[in-house]
Each structure stands twice: as structure tokens, then as C-alpha cells.
Write a structure and sequence with these properties.
The complex is a heterodimer of chains A (258) and B (307).
Chain A (H helix, E strand, L loop, with lengths): L2 H16 L5 H19 L4 H25 L1 H8 L2 H7 L4 H35 L7 H25 L4 H16 L1 H10 L2 H13 L9 H5 L6 H28 L4
Chain B lengths: L4 H28 L14 H7 L4 H21 L8 H11 L4 H11 L10 H14 L4 H13 L4 H12 L7 H11 L4 H14 L3 H34 L6 H6 L16 E2 L5 E2 L28
Antiparallel strand pairs in B: 1-2
Helix pairs in contact in B: 2-4, 3-4, 4-5, 4-6, 5-6, 5-7, 6-7, 7-8, 8-9, 9-10, 10-11
Classes of the chains: A mainly alpha (258), B mainly alpha (307).
Chain lengths: 258, 307
Amino acid sequence: MNSRIAHIASNTFREAVRDRVLYNLIAFALLLVGAAILVGQISLDVERLVVINLGLTAVSLFGVVIAIFIGIGLVSKEIEKRTLYTVLSRPVRRWEFIVGKFFGLAGTLLVNATLMAIGVFGALFYVSHQLQKADAWVLVALYFIILQFLIITALALLFSSFSSPLLSAVFAFSLFVIGSFSEDLRGFAAMTQGLTRWLATGAAYLVPNFSAFNVISSVAHGVPVPAQLVLYNSLYAVFYAAMVLCGAVVIFEHRNLK
Amino acid sequence: MRPSRKLTITGLALLVALLAASSATRARVDQLRAGASLEEILYLSSPKVVKRVSLGYDGLAADIYWTRAVQYFGGKHHTGATQYRLLAPLLEITTYLDPHLTVAYEFGANFLSPAPPNGAGMPDRAVRLVEHGIENNPDDWKLYYELGFIYYWELHDYKQAAEAFERGSQRPGAHPFLKVLAAKMAQNAGEIETARMLWITTFESSHDQQVRENAAAHLRALQVDQDVTDLENALQQYRQKTGRAAESLRDLIVAGLLRELPVDPTGRPYRLTADGRIEVREPDDLPFINKGTPLGYQQPLAPVLKP
């Protein structure tokens, strides 16, 4: 990564921290501690399950919300505050600005998710008094959640590069929901015929596939995640995020900023 | 600042290449997770919880659950599955979310009641589903017909079947056959003619092509069962009359027991085997037949229905 991209990324990260993004960790900690104590008292033998399910779901949802709401303002806020002109008047190319912003937000989400992961494992240790071998799969689920963040960040940035923050949020959130049902979309496509089938299959491949990243329920039961799925999910996330970033770069390159 | 042409072209080329790469990896992920959307796990199994979670959009949620039920049944039926664990809960959630979605009762009961591989083999759950439908749609005669059909065809409970047909015949717009069927249940329940009447009612009252094809296939199968029974009777009469077994079906014509060589509903002539049995020539083209199949014949897992 060249130094200009690294600078923009680190500034984006610092800005997010200054915006008190990491305050969500407090809410997360309260939720997890509350659930671990409460469920221990009112339920039977599901403490571990609840901590994993609730913990990982919270990591995912908090991260998605941060990715969307920070991501949509990454470009538009800079234009609104006119700081973008200062940045672009220096020897910084537009594509470097976009890529730097992406890595900055992705880094923020990575730090956030890592701190939350420590919380999840802490809560797991609290309820089980030990960590089991199967808990290692929780790490894989966390890794998939981070891959999901990469795609959502890229999407929020893409919409931010040409649309208003409100519309960008709507678009990004809608794609998140559609992407979570993408396997159903593929299933529906398989049931149709002719032109509809082609169009539906095309749509299923064009929207992000978030369902394959969701292994929370199975890892909560200690079910192993196949190594091939880890490999192909990683490749898919990288290719898809890079594709969306390319789109963002091309659009931003052509945007009239006057 | 003018946009760099080189950068635009590179960006677009990269975008297309990455789209292809992501689609290829996506296809691989789909292969690894084949049937993932139909996993044998129903995360929310309580209809009440699903209704609350749907935040008042129960109509849309019911449509989605109905589509999932169809997809689940279709996917498993295609592979000749014998277990349909999630089918009944999916249908129950669907109809709890939208109790007036009558299509879910009609088709759902057809998925649930027949024995595998044609269905889930759960006629009791099908009865419960249709009873729930009748409670919520008391004027829909097709639901009573469906109920009577399950009692007749799957449970062989002709008294209950008669009662369901009778109740249905009193609803507005009911098919005239319902009244006749209610009467026939009492005396001629097990007869082919009664079964034929049921399938004709199904054929005539549905606009769905698959339902009509299924009914037509059953009607053809009933025809074969009837033909084979008639031919077997004729063979026996020949034996009694001549004191020996017929060597071919032509012998029956010569003896005046048949007017012409009989053909099955696909137009192919029936065959008399060396051991004196009547067989159809292409049993795969005549799904659901009970008679006339070659010895050891296994019905295909997913029979092909023809219009």
C-alpha cells in the first residue's frame, strides 16, 4: 500500500475513533454480560449457546450498522465540509482517496470486532469456566463476519461516491437484506424457466451473498466449518469487495466536484 | 480535473474481471453449500414467534414461507426423498401467518398426505392442516373436497370422507360431483368408478397445470387397473371355456371374449406374458398404476407426468 493510501486510511480510522464509534463496545459489553448472567439464572444448559449466538450476532449487527452509517458519509461528508478539495489539491489521486477510505473503515471495523471477540471469549470463559476445542470455530465465524464487513464497507463507499447519505444508507441496507436472502434468490431462480431464470440467476450472482458467511448457528453447536468454505468465502469476499471498489473508483473519477 | 481515460478503462476492465472471478467463487461456494437454503433446520419453529417477528407484515411473511415450503418440497421430491421433516411446520407457519391463503391448504395437503416418494406420507398432519383451513374459510368447498379426498385416498376412512364431501356439497359453488361422491362413499367406496370421479373432480376444478397433469396421470392409471382386471377376467373365462390357458390375446378375440386388441392409455397394446399375466409395455409412462407392471418393477423416484 502506498504511503498516501496509508495516510488516508489512518486518518479515517482516527476520525472514526474521534466520532466515538468505539462507544458501541460499551453497549456490546453490557448486552453480553447481562445475557450471560440472566440466561444462567433462568434457563437450562444453554448459556454457552446463548453467549455464542448473541455475541456473534451482536458483533455482526453492530459492525454492519457502523459500516453502513460511517461508510455512507465517507465521501459525502468530505465534500460537504469541503475538506475533500484540500486533500485532492495535494498529490493524492481520487482512486487513492477511495481505497484509503476503504482501508480506514475496514481497519476500524477490524479493531472493533477484535475487541468484541475478546468480550465473547471472556463471556464464554465466564459461563463454561473453561474454553473448549470447539470454541475455535467461533474464530472462523468471526473471520466470516469480518469478510462480510469488507463487502458492506465497499458497498457503502460505492453508494457514498454518487448519492446522498440518506439514499446511500437505504441502498446499502437493502443490499444487506437482499444479500442475506441471496441463497433463496438462487433457489427461486432455479425454479423458474426461460428468460426469467436467466435474469433471476444474474441478479442472484450480482447481489452479494451474505448467507454463506453466516455460520453462527452451526459453530454454536460446535459443527466444524469446511476448510474449502473458508478458502472460497475469503476469495469471494476479496473479489467482490474489490469489484465494488473498482465501481466506486470509476464513478468517483468521473464525478464533477465543482 | 479531467478523468483519466486510462484509469477509467483499467477500472472497468478490472471490474468485469472481478465480477467474473467473484461469480466463479460464488458458484463454488454454492456447490459447497448445496441445499443450504433448505437446511433441515427451522430456526423459528413457532408460528406465533414468526408472526411477532414479522412486525405486522404477516401477508408478505406468509408468501415467503409458502414459497419456502414449495421450494423445500420440490427440492426433496426431485431427489426422491422419503423424509420431509420441515414440510408440516413450514405449512403450519404459512397458514398461521395468513389463514386465508387457501392455496397453501390445497397444495400443502397434496404434498403432505401421499406416501413417499409422491409425498411426505403424513395424512394426519394434512387433515389437521385442512381442518384449520376450513375453520378459517368455511365457505371454500375445495377444502372440504380436499379433506374428503385425504380420508378416502390415504386413510380409507370412508365415513369421514362421506361427511366431508357432504359438508362441501352444501357450500356455494360446490362441484356437483361432491353430492354424488358423498353418496358413493357409503356403498361403492373402494370401486374404481368412485376413484375416477374423485380425480375427474380434481382435474376439472383446478387451473394449475401440474395438478391437472397429476389428476390425468391418476385417471390413466385407473384405466389401466380397470383394463388389466377386465383382461384377467377374460383370461379366466377362456380357461373355463376351453380348459387351457390362452396363448395370446388374439385367442380371446377368437373365443368371442374380446372385440379387439386392447391398448393402454398411451396407445400401446397390452401384453400377455408366458406365465399368463397382463403387462403394459412402458410402465414408466404410466405412473401410479397398481396392476400390469412387470415382475420386480420399481416406480421411478420422481415420475414424469405428461399432459
